[in-house]
Amino acid sequence: MTEKEKNDKIINLAVRKGFFWKSFELYGGSSGFWDYGPLGSIIKKKILDEWMRFYRIKEGFLEVDTPTINLDKVFVASGHIENFVDIIVKCDNCKEEYRADHLLNDLGIDIEGTDLNKYEELIERNNIRCPVCGGKLGRCQRFNLMFETSIGVDRNNRSGYLRPETAQGIFINFLRLSRLARTLPFGVVQIGKAYRNEISPRQGIIRLREFTIAEAEIFIDPNEDGLSIDKVADYVVNLFPRDYNREIRITIKEAIDNKIIRNKFVAYNIAIANMFLTRIGIPNEKIRFRQHKKDEMAHYASDCWDAEIKTDKYGWIEVAGIADRGDYDLRSHSIESDQELYIFKPFDKPIKVKKNVIKPNMDIIGPMFKDKSPLILEKLKKGEGIIKDGDLHLKIGDEDIIIKNGAYSIEETDEEVHGEKIVPHVVEPSYGIDRILYSLLESSYREEPLENGEMRVVLGFKAFMSPIDVAVFPLLPKKELIEKSKEVTELLKSYNLYVFYDDNGSIGRRYRRQDEAGTPFCVTIDFDTLDDDKVTVRDRDTMKQERIKISDLGEFLEDLIEQSKSTP
RNA sequence: GCGCUGGUAGUGUAGUGGUUAUCACUGGAGCUUGCCAAGCUCCAAACCCGGGUUCAAUUCCCGGUCAGCGCACCA
Question: Which residues form a coiled coil (predicted)?
């Protein structure tokens, strides 16, 4: 079986069994959008539940749920309006499209920003022609990868964008969240949809225009990490550092000590990511963490490690990124919103500081500067203003204000300082849930020859991750057996199990159907059951059967499902 | 976005300018069947969308769309 054939089979199975399928099929479909069907919805939810268990329960992070549409200002601040843009130029002759910055870079010209005139001017001045046909290049166009929308009835009202990541919803709530957390470090998580208007999404469910991400923003004190890595010190991960050209297996502690991973929080979260992925059933040997090359990094990141999963079809695919965003986001929003975003960190003991404070004499300044004087007062309070040659110099807009000696005085004060303002740094683990789901499906897929020469297709999910917990069959479609089977079905539902009842076709066919769906257990009711109250429990992986008393059945299955959580 | 190739039941396919579009698997009803896709009967289910040419288009032409591949893109 080639890799392509295997992939085709998996997609085929996923569609047939109701894991996922293309959206809008009724109207011809649209690239980059996929629906989750009944089984896919459940497994996606189970992945998210497990993710939340890791981050909200175990790490103790706060959860938020913010709008998918954000005001344009949010993305002005975040840099997405500016940087989440490609400048495209099209050949007038052959209609081939290029990224203008790439054409310029090829000539060694570095250009930043999104000023179209600048691009067109440079292209013209350097006489850049179409690399394919030599034709003349047309006007430059801006292509932003965010979906734009307008808010409210009036089209000119306020412009908004569908978020390309959930992170901004956390950053802009920083002040409220930091008050709730009360101490650094703290983390905030959000799961939700994000949107990117990909130019040409391919690769099925791997590249989507609307997708689900699970993100944690961990706010840390840049001067004092306050993190113990004891829990993960000896945990071994597969690292692919930027300056190596190979993978290394190494403990977290070694990776930190040898400065392979600079940031302790990043290192810690690499371990958590590895634990999470293996927990839901991705084989450890198919996971690695690859450090981004310098030019590969997003505009906000100073370091980034991708969690990658080895797939048969697509090779190593990125399923999570663990980025060191520094203080980029909080500073940007601080500037854009004109609000200070910081945490006040008290000293152990207040310290006394002698300070020279400029005291303006408003009796003079007031009449002299009239309506500008309130602004002057405000600026002086902020500590702006330089004393040069005995005069006080101050800038208001473009204007230089000079306040003569005598219109102000300098006083020495003793000030008690109780702490300092800190702009936290952010480490962000960000997971692409759809890709994880695909990887899980692919790595769970196997075909096994049976004794009779047939092949059986199995999705070998861990029992607790399987969409259907248990199937119940009457051995034969006889009235008594069907009745008993429905009783058993109801009993199992009372254990909060998702039960699938099936009395159609031969018993073997029904087992096959459940193997394809990944159902770990099948319960069969036969005529003996009516006498001894025992049922046959059949295990998906071993196909072994065991007789269990109906009164023990619920707990028996619960135990097996629980056990599957700790198996590798 | 560009180029090439393709699009027929849920899936995989055959075929056609003209009556009721082939087959298999799957699915459903029943018979049979005492634990791993058995057998029999019956049933359901499709020509990607729009326009053109034509008496007549699923078939030919054009456009769109989706898919695969190549280029480009993937912060």
Answer: none
Helix (H) or strand (E) holding A458: strand A455-459
CATH architecture of A458-564: 3-Layer(aba) Sandwich (3.40)
Cα A568 from Cα A556, distance rounded (Å): 21
What CATH number has the domain spanning A3-72+150-329+426-432?
3.30.930.10
CA–CA separation, A467 and A566 (whole Å): 18
Nucleotides on chain B within 7 angstroms of protein Cβ: 1-3, 7, 10-12, 26-29, 31-38, 48-49, 64-69, 71-75
Residues 6+ apart with CB under 8 A from A422: A184, A221, A222, A223, A342, A343, A344, A345
Backbone angles phi, psi at A494, to 5 degrees: -70, -15
Candidate CATH numbers 3.90.1300.10, 3.30.40.230, 3.30.465.10, 3.40.50.300; the one for domain A85-144: 3.30.40.230
Q: What is the pLDDT of residues A45-91, one digit of tens each?
A: 999 999 999 999 999 999 999 999 999 999 999 988 887 877 777 76
The nucleotide closest to A321 (CA, C1' atoms) = B75
DSSP A466-511: -SS-EEEEESS--HHHHHHHHHHHHHHHTTT--EEE--SS-HHHHH
* Shortest CA to C1' contact from A22: nucleotide: B66
From the list A410, A311, A394, the residue with the least C-alpha distance to A356 is: A410
Q: Distance (Å) from CA A134 to C1' B57?
A: 42
Tens of pLDDT, residue by residue over A216-259, are 999 999 988 788 999 999 999 999 999 888 999 999 999 999 99
pLDDT in tens, A270-324: 999 999 999 999 999 999 999 998 877 777 788 999 999 998 888 899 999 999 9
Tell me, what DSSP letter sits at residue A73?
A: H
Q: Where does the pLDDT of residue A169 fall: very low under 50, low under 70, confident under 90, or very high at 90 and above?
A: very high
Structure token pair of residue A300:
């906000």
Q: How far is the CA of A455 from the C1' of B25 (A)?
A: 14
Q: What is the ipTM of this complex?
A: 0.88
A55: its two tokens: 């981050």
Q: Nearest nucleotide by C1' from A509 CA?
A: B37
Quick one: tokens of A147?
């979906």
